[in-house]
Every structure is written in C-alpha cells, then in structure tokens.
Specification:
Largest sheet: 3 strands, antiparallel
Oligomer: single chain
Strand order of the largest sheet: 1-3-2
Shape: elongated
Number of helices: 10
Number of strands: 8
Radius of gyration: 19 Å
Order of helices and strands: HEHHEEHEHEHEEEHHHH
Length: 190
Amino acid sequence: MSYFEKLNELIKEKNGLVFTKDVVKAGIPKSYLAELVKKGELERVGHGIYINVDAFEDKMFSLQQRREAIAFSHDTALFLHDLSDRDPLSYSVTVPTGYNTKNIKNEGVNVFTIKRELYPLGLTTLQTPFGNAVKTYNMERTICDMIRSRNQMDIAILTDALKRYVKRKDKNIPRLMEYAESFRIDKIII
C-alpha cells in the first residue's frame, strides 16, 4: 500500500478530518499532506489540522484536538446535553487556572477558568452533532457552572435548562447538591 493510499484510508477513517500527529503516528511522511493540499483534495484549517474538501469541519472537535486542556462548558455543554435548543454562537470552555487563554480567546471562544482541584469535577465525554467525542461536563456540573456565572449568561437559557433538567429521568439531584456545595452555591440552589 502506498503512502497516498494509507493517507486516504486514514482520512476516511477519521471522517475527513486528519491531524498531522495522526499521520506521523501512522508512519506517513508529512510531505504527503502538503501534496494533497496542493492537489486540492485537502484543506488546511489550522496548525496541524487538515480536512477533506468534501467534508464539513467539526469545529468543536478540532478545537479540542488543538487545545486538549479545554472542556466544553456552560451554554455549549447545555446544548450537548440537550438542555438547550440554542446552538451556541460561540463556544464556551473551561480550563484550569494558570492555563494560557489568550489564543483561545482570539478564536472567539468564551473562556472560563477554575481552580485546578475543581477542574476535573464532573468531566465526561459526549458526542458533537458530527459524532466526534469531546470532553465536557456532566449535566449537574453544567447547571452549577451556569448558576455560578449567571450574571454573564442569558437568564432565559438558564431558566429553560433548569426546567428541562428537572424533567429528565437521568437527573442526579444528590450529585447536583454535592457539586453545589463544592462551588459554594448550595444556598442559591435550595
């Protein structure tokens, strides 16, 4: 199998989105990516990120691939959990305190920071609308984040999310209260 065949197989396997690190890992020289870009078969959408010209870019997935420390949160996590029907205009992410957020903010992303010890609380993985797995927070953590940042959020989105959460069969009220205590918002939730 030639390098071009291996690369095309990898692109197909990755749903049209391929990263330089995956190409190198597969033992394919990086120059083959440049050759496919030159032929018009691939498009470079970011540093080390290429997409097949016939595919749609999953911006959430590619953002997370470039910045592994981010976790989708707030209104973006509400959307992923189906607690909101509003497709976020710009993504909201959370990173641990001390993480350099300048480049992420320059991409138009809303960035929230949290103490390092609270960052992993409620981390989970969900699928984007394109079917790719991304790191996000569970429903209970997302509700707490929305309440903690309520002055920066659209109150209608928060109200709708709370109504939807209460109706869900998979809600976990004890976990919500545990997280609320950790974030010191338990008096607001009660």
